[in-house]
Amino acid sequence: MDITEIQKNLDKLKVLQLFVGINEVILGNIFSNSKLLRLKKGETLFLQDEQADHVYIIIEGSIKIFKSNEEGEEMLLKVVKVGNSFLEAITFSCKKYTTNAQSLEDILILSIPVKILNQNIQKDNRLATNMLTIVGNSSQTLIAKIEQLTLKTSVQRIGWFLLRLFIEKKGKDKTIELPYDKSLIASYLNMKPETFSRSIKQLKEQGIDIAHNTISIKDDFALCEYCNSYVASKCPNIIHQDCRHNN
Amino acid sequence: MDITEIQKNLDKLKVLQLFVGINEVILGNIFSNSKLLRLKKGETLFLQDEQADHVYIIIEGSIKIFKSNEEGEEMLLKVVKVGNSFLEAITFSCKKYTTNAQSLEDILILSIPVKILNQNIQKDNRLATNMLTIVGNSSQTLIAKIEQLTLKTSVQRIGWFLLRLFIEKKGKDKTIELPYDKSLIASYLNMKPETFSRSIKQLKEQGIDIAHNTISIKDDFALCEYCNSYVASKCPNIIHQDCRHNN
DNA sequence: CGCTAGATTGAGGTCAATCAACGGGTGTGG
DNA sequence: CCACACCCGTTGATTGACCTCAATCTAGCG
Predict the structure, then answer these.
(1) Vertex A139, ends B112 and A238: CA angle to 5°?
(2) Separation between Cα atoms, residue B98 and residue A146, nearest integer Å
């Protein structure tokens, strides 16, 4: 019920993918029934098998969504950054979280009761279609991840990851920074830090260099061989005539 | 426009998850703009990167959804059976299929133009929420698949697959038939047929026997060690006091 | 009966994991 | 200011799981 603080963040909230095109009345109802939470770095947001009664949207910071087995091994599913929700973590049928969520830094999040969300879905169709788009996209990302895990080598997975980083930044820079610790990236790509380290050496021979946390590429097309059609659809180089996915 | 044939299958169609609770007018609009297709075994329904302008629902038979790389290797994502759709194959943003689909036997399918579906989503909220449930569930299945691929050995993956088969059948039988070729199952579990074959031998020592296409288990709990919480939620044995997931 | 596709078995190779040691930052306390 | 511990990342040596290739077996079918 900390409406005043929600008001302060209203501008950030209204433009989120989940709330695009939703009228003020619905938004008001959702926000007035939601809460803002602050968590310190490393705190747990929810655990696998807990009752999934809230949906979260990140306003500041980032969190990791992961699975773990009885041996304590972690399987990093995704890192959720500012402005994103993670609806795929909740099931619409079984009502329990199927993953764990932990903050990677100090975070500020909006916590929406699932019940409230469901009530408003009935009232505003746009909310349902927005959610559909979000869950649909995350499905695509999951499929892409499966493709990488099953059909690609460790070097190829790193190349693919770096390519996505460069496309995300959209800048003309041939140099960018790694967004997380190397061991976290390794986990996301399903390999051990040692393997990550060794694979990077192989990439060096192809004009892709990682020194400390700085990645630099020889030219704009150094990573093209790690592209696939899903990534290509977001790549500014797709217009280039040498691009495999140019059509 | 083969309405008469659609009429014949109306009973089958109306009870599908996608159409639950949708009123007759909407259904009529959807069906009158859809077509029934018959494909022979092995025919291609759509290919990766093609324009995704139709959504399909299977009325008879089954199909496989898979990715393939330039070397022709296949990565089986899922097998879609009677009554199911595969909305996750379409993107809501990029409008291209991200996977391939091919029939595993002679099939009869309903082909709905995406445009028609979108129009009716605007009119009937229930259609949107039904889709949300379907895509949400498939997200969960994808997450479960990633978990298996990354954290489990080949023997564990087979055990998990067999467990799901037994739960699906729900019967009290300790003997069931494999639903597809072993090589197809192997592909689904991301291993080679040879590895599948060798892993089965290891399962024999635990009271799980596969002779030809018949699986038989020593007792109802032989496969319990391959369970996880997502599978457990559908397992009749979860009420048993020895069940790890009983709570 | 022979043909063929699928399944099994064996031998050998490969990629990534494991285990262990080391180096370079960073922070803390004396 | 230095000594020390600690974490992260790197490097080397070895292991192991799964793949590859090839031969053989089996079941189904005309």
Answers:
(1) 90
(2) 12
Local confidence band at A2 (pLDDT 50, 70, 90 cut-offs): low
Chain A's closest residue to B246, CA to CA, is: A49
The C-alpha angle B132, B134, B136, rounded to 5 degrees, equals 65
Which regions in chain B score pLDDT beneath 50?
A: none
| Strands of the A54-60 sheet, one edge to the other | A35-39, A107-113, A54-60
Q: Is A37:A113 a contact under the CB 8 Å cutoff?
A: no
pLDDT at site A247: 64
**A residues 31..60 contacting B (CB < 8 A):** 48-49
Query: Is B140 within 8 Å of A98 (Cβ atoms)?
Result: yes
Average pLDDT, chain A: 87
Q: Write out the H or E segment, with its range, that includes residue B46.
A: strand B44-46
Mutation target vs A (from B77, B132, B149, B244; most A CBs, 10 A cutoff): B132
Q: Could you give the CA distance from residue B143 to residue A99 in angstroms, rounded to a whole number?
A: 9
Bridge partners of B176?
A: B215
Say if the Cβ atoms of B132 and A92 lie within 8 Å.
yes
Q: Which amino acid belongs to residue B185?
A: I
Within 10 Å of residue B45's Cβ, how many Cβ atoms?
24
Token pair, residue A17, equals 């993918």
Measure the CA–CA gap between A223 and A234, rounded to whole angstroms. 14
Rounded Cα distance, A89 and A101, in Å: 9
Span A97-117, pLDDT tens digits: 889 999 998 899 999 999 999
pLDDT digits (tens, 9 = 90+) for A131-144: 999 999 899 999 99
